[in-house]
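Sequence, structure tokens quoted for completeness.
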Amino acid sequence: MTPIPRLPPFASGMRIGLLGGSFNPPHEGHALITRLALRRLALDRVWWLVTPGNPLKSLTGLAALNARIEAARGLDVGPRVVVTDIEAQIGSHFTYDTLLWLKRRAPGVQFVWIMGADNLRQFHLWRHWRLIAELTPIVVVDRPGSTLKAISSPAGAALARWRIPERDASRFATMPPPALLFLHGPRSGLSSTALRRVNASQHSDAAQAEISSGGVPAHTNKTPSTRGEIRRTPMNPSVLIVGAGPVGLTLACELIRYRVPVRIVDKAPQRTDKSKALVLWSRTLELLDRGDTGAAPFVEAGFKVDGVDIVAADRRVVGHVKMESVPSPYNYALMLPQSDTERLLEERLQRLGVSVERSTEATALKIGAGGVEATLRRADGREETAHADWLAGCDGAHSIVRHTLGAPFTGETMLSDWVLADTHMSGYPFPDTEVAVYWARDGVLPIFPIAPGRYRIIANVPPSGGDHPRDPTLEEIAAIVEQRGPKDVKLFDPIWLSGFRINARKVESYRSGRAFLSGDAAHVHSPAGGEGMNTGMQDAFNLAWKLALAIHGTCGEALLDTYSPERSGVGEEVLKNTSRLTAIGTLHNPVAEELRNLVGRVALGFAPVQHAVVDNMSQVSVGYPKSPMNGRGHGSFRPGPGQRMAPIASAPPFGAGHEPRFTLLASSSPAVAGVLSSFPKLLNAALGPPPDENGVWLIRPDGYVAATAPAADLSSISDVLSRMSA
């Protein structure tokens, strides 16, 4: 039977400082920091958290835990200082996990994390360091030679905006985090590292003799490492994400924003340097706007395209659509190479305190009712058995997560080959802010502006018969453009040339117990419409807030069970639409081609048709009309359940902040106040303006309507919230 962890004595309302470290060995510098914190911060206690080992340091020379604890107690700092091995008891090697556990077990205690200035210099390397800063105030004690460097360190600079004047030290423990205080007082140059060096020099001969004989020095608890050894991590992240492309990075950013610990691994040694997926649509930008720094970095890095021209074989324009009518703050297509999308997402993730573990491949997975076990292999052959509560497969079309689940990837591979070129070109006959799609007799030729003078060109070509289509030459691409597309253009300085085949495949269910599939791991389809990456990222947005509410205990299985039907339904529609667009663009029957051109010319002449086309293209029309989450709708209130609610100007985006909350769009009333008080953990306290003052809208954290109701009867609103929180 697992022993119950023993906390030192405490009482609700106490102010307790936490000084964590290996204490290898403990010394008077620790005592000096502690006395200063007790006096200046008006603390009731300081707990010395003696760690089993520091993940940022080698275990070589680390004394046994019991020996370090006894040595720390031997310093006799005073009755208000407690030395504890609580981290070893709960199996934690990471400060964030320890703090989370302590705050749950001692909710009435006001904890303060104490560190030396040298620790702040390395704080950005700590796991989930930004989340640590959001859990508890941090006090940094001055140390010779380290304070100025600590202030200018990545973490010091990031936390500077929350720095509290030292004159407020006595009430610092009561301040809500994030809060940072620099404390000055008597200084000590002592460090455990320096003392270990002295100790090592005194005992090096004996230690070397023992190592040479194949033994392990008595003062270390580290076993000799061997290539391919299996080691176990002592504390589990809530979610293990396999795959660090746009989908995995999006999911990681969202979960961390919602204070869910994650670990994200990818077998590739670095991000892609290819443009690959090229466009961010309006709906994806709206959802990105909810996160750290909003959508602005993406918009600044991209190139706006606001129209599409459809050109027949005789090079006459048969259709033209403009995106200015899209009901979104982002009424354009943002051309941004996937390499830049991944870069910006990874930078966002790093600002949140998490790094991608690259050159780390998930080679085996065990998924059970209580969690997930993964074998992770590094590039040098070392292996690790990692554990997590949940698993997210964002690892592409050849997903090991999908294979482990045994989920059929049903569909087909198109017989034709396709070629792609990212290249510079002069002589483009349309504005650089418009896409041109050429419907030629022998195939389709879309041309996408990436930036002024740079374009993505795609074309279907006859099947080669090989296992993989070969990459084209620039001369071959130029010949296709000459035959199907604009005349008198010149292609030069190609950036990327590639051949590919189109697969249209999808799994039936996106969830199996504690494992989820997102992005290309769940669905792949034609690049027509540029919807693949956007659909995958929106899978991640949908999953993140639901998983966060479940992990935090606010909601349960009923909410998680909505992920697969919602996103599988969207994936099915994307599969049909992209296959339909591909078929329309690759017609070879002259009669069918003429009919297609006639219908396109006539239909796109009507404003309602144009609006429907661009709303579908920009994905603002994506919704969940058949979601099991949906409540009742009132016939006259629009948008209705499952439909997107457009962002409200001058208001924060739905789902912004660190907690996924539903929002009521309603006028203030006793009935509305009653619903707010009944579901304080699910609802934002602030109301939004309703589209109709006679109605009430319940908006999900991803901006979709969950239910509508007349102001006099909010039972449909309460019903949804009750079902989701059950």
Notes: The CA atoms of residues 416 and 463 lie 5 Å apart.
